[in-house]
Amino acid sequence: MSAHDARLFAVTVMVLLVLRFALLLLLWAVGGEPLQPDSSLYLQLAVGLVEHGWFSSSLDLYRPEVFRTPGYPAYLGFFQWLGLGDRFWPLLVQELLYLATVGVYYIGTRSLLDSGLARAVVVFLLVEPGGIGYPKLILSDTLNLVMIVPAVFAVGWHLKTGRWNWLLLAGLLLGAVVWVRPANFLLPVVFAPVLLVASGFGRTGCIRAALLVLVAALTLSPWLARNQIVFGTPYLSGQASNMFLNYHLPYVWEVARGLRFQEGQREAAVLAEQAFFAAESKRDGPLNTVERFRLQQQAALDALLQYPVVYAQTWVIGMLKTLLGPGMLDAYAAFGYQSERVRFAALDEVSFAHKVRSFLEYLDWVVLAEVALRAGLLLLALVGAVVIMRAGSPFLWIIMLLSAYTIVVPGPMGLARLRFAAEGFLFLQAWIGLRCLLQRSARWRTLASVPNK
């Protein structure tokens, strides 16, 4: 990197940091709207931890919580314990944590890939709408990001240096992040085959893969042990059950039966209640929370498997929603702008095409431009995926696997904020694709300029 490029990059970063600081001051001045539909439960659980020392959303009677994991409530509870009950303080720290993660991106990308990619991803992350919005919301997305990104780079540094402390750190972070976002629990298993391949399927590779999974499992084990003691089973979380019953099934019914999403949610709730009633009648006694979650998940899966083709279609649509969803809307929400906006799922349309059309009518040109830009990044990322597969770089495989996992797992639920943990890695993948296309274009121009003899 030339001295001029270094100065230009430094000035750009400084300007963007000043602008972000100005937005933070604006948030402090106007108050914003940091509370989202999921926020209230996080705050209730934080109060329970601080005031009663229990993990329960009920403040008068202990009802052990298993729908949420305690990672993010503990983060919020820390500020309440310090007497910083104002919601601004957790948001301020989330902003600082996000900027620290951008720094990890720069150091890690420069070390494991190259400085050009490092500069590009830093600028992108400082202006990316989700990166502006999510740290300013009472949601677990930023804390999730703060653990996943260093974990990925730690795996990369282990592959590069062979130092085991990096692998131990990766396992620790991958276990800890499940306390924040339960859907991440399979990431060590997803990454393990890369460690095997990188070592030629030898003994070292087996030890690497086993150690990563083992450390992650041990880090998660206190939570599973608690649930074993309380519920009689090492249950992880009710999040998957909620996703299948309240999102996947209504979206499938919307297509298969012409049932509006909200009606589908009400009918799914009735389906679950019927399953509860049948089970309780059979045993002549009440079900505990975990048993109810398992029953409703099984009822939802049984209903979903009646429409396998439609389920697959809605899964693909959900992935596109996650990939193309505008983070700008959540940035608006953080500042209380367009608070009257109707959410995609709440639109009173059965046809997905009509729902998309109605949704787009609510959007301004900035948001529409973001959607168009994300479509372009998606195409470049697909090119980047081909380049990565051919390159044979284990670290790039890890990046691609994380991106794919983050996009695929939510399925029909499809939300822009579910993309947040992989945002920078998706950009790196797209930038690699762009480089490939530019290099090919340059070669074609060179060949075209050679005169025929």
Describe what you observe in this structure.
The chain has 453 residues and is mainly alpha-helical. Among the domains are: 1-30 and 87-139, no CATH class; 34-85, no CATH class. It is 73% helix and 0% strand. The chain has helices at 3-30, 39-51, 71-81, 88-112, 115-127, 129-133, 141-161, 164-176, 187-198, 203-231, 239-256, 261-283, 289-304, 308-324, 328-334, 352-361, 365-391, 394-408, 423-449. Helix 9 (187-198) packs antiparallel against helix 18 (394-408), helix 12 crosses helix 13 and helix 18 (394-408) crosses helix 19 (423-449). It is globular, with a radius of gyration of 23 Å. The two termini are 39 Å apart.
